[in-house]
UniProtKB/TrEMBL annotation:
Taxonomic lineage of the native organism: Bacteria, Pseudomonadati, Bacteroidota, Sphingobacteriia, Sphingobacteriales
Gene Ontology cellular component annotations, sorted alphabetically: cytoplasm
GO MF: thiamine-phosphate diphosphorylase activity
Ranges for domain Thiamine phosphate synthase/TenI: 8-192
Superkingdom in the source lineage: Bacteria
Record's protein name: Thiamine phosphate synthase
GO biological process: thiamine biosynthetic process
Organism of origin: Pedobacter frigoris
């Protein structure tokens, strides 16, 4: 089942300036149509409190709500999909568990990872990190513009039509060059929710990508 995937994904995080709910509200007011709720620090009850509130916001503004990991919460709230960060996850098993109607995204750092994700039926993939980021610390190699150019070229050679988004340390100054590599879109967080003005920052990303 082919899913609609937005070109600009906004990812919430634990930050001092705004709660996850406030981040979702401001992003949607700014035109966001894709909210990825990423919280790995709360209990299930706390997660569901956030998710239910964000789901109402997304419903009001016509936005898709994706939850990072926590697939055990499927069916307990109005969640349209899940993004799984574990690059070694069994996506065939996850699809069997969640069903065809749920949007599933996966993460990768390599061409081989993208090929596997496509084979196992994800609806989109986040490829990164592009650059250093404080919102998601990991030891994976930074891809940079050259890494995306090479990977997207090889992906086309394999005739794989998978929506791939650049993620990890992307700033507004990087968007033009990244989009020229052939990627589908951008996933952004800190460059928006830790900016001086979230609405303006989101609008700048949107105008460049869309």
């Amino acid at each position: 089942m082919k899913k609609f995937i937005e070109k600009l994904h906004f990812i919430t995080h634990d930050i001092e300036q705004y709660t996850h709910i406030e981040q979702a509200q401001i992003a949607c007011e700014s035109g966001a149509k894709w909210i990825q709720y990423r919280c790995l620090t709360k209990s299930d009850d706390e997660l569901l409190k956030d998710i239910n509130a964000i789901a109402e916001i997304c419903d009001d503004w016509g936005a898709t709500l994706i939850v990072t990991d926590h697939i055990h919460l499927n069916g307990k709230a109005d969640i349209q999909g899940f993004h799984i960060e574990d690059m070694d996850a069994d996506f065939l098993k996850i699809r069997d568990e969640l069903g065809e109607a749920i949007t599933i995204g996966g993460s990768s750092n390599t061409l081989e990872g993208l090929i596997r994700l496509n084979k196992e039926g994800v609806d989109y993939a986040g490829l990164g990190p592009f650059y250093e980021t404080t919102t998601k610390l990991n030891g994976f190699p930074l891809l940079g513009i050259d890494g995306y150019q090479t990977t997207m070229l090889k992906l086309r050679e394999h005739q794989i039509d998978l929506p791939v988004l650049a993620v990890g340390g992307v700033t507004i100054e990087d968007v033009d060059a990244l989009m020229q590599t052939g990627i589908f879109g951008i996933a952004a967080s800190a460059a928006i929710n830790q900016s001086e003005n979230m609405k303006d920052a989101y609008g700048s990303f949107y105008d460049k990508i869309m």
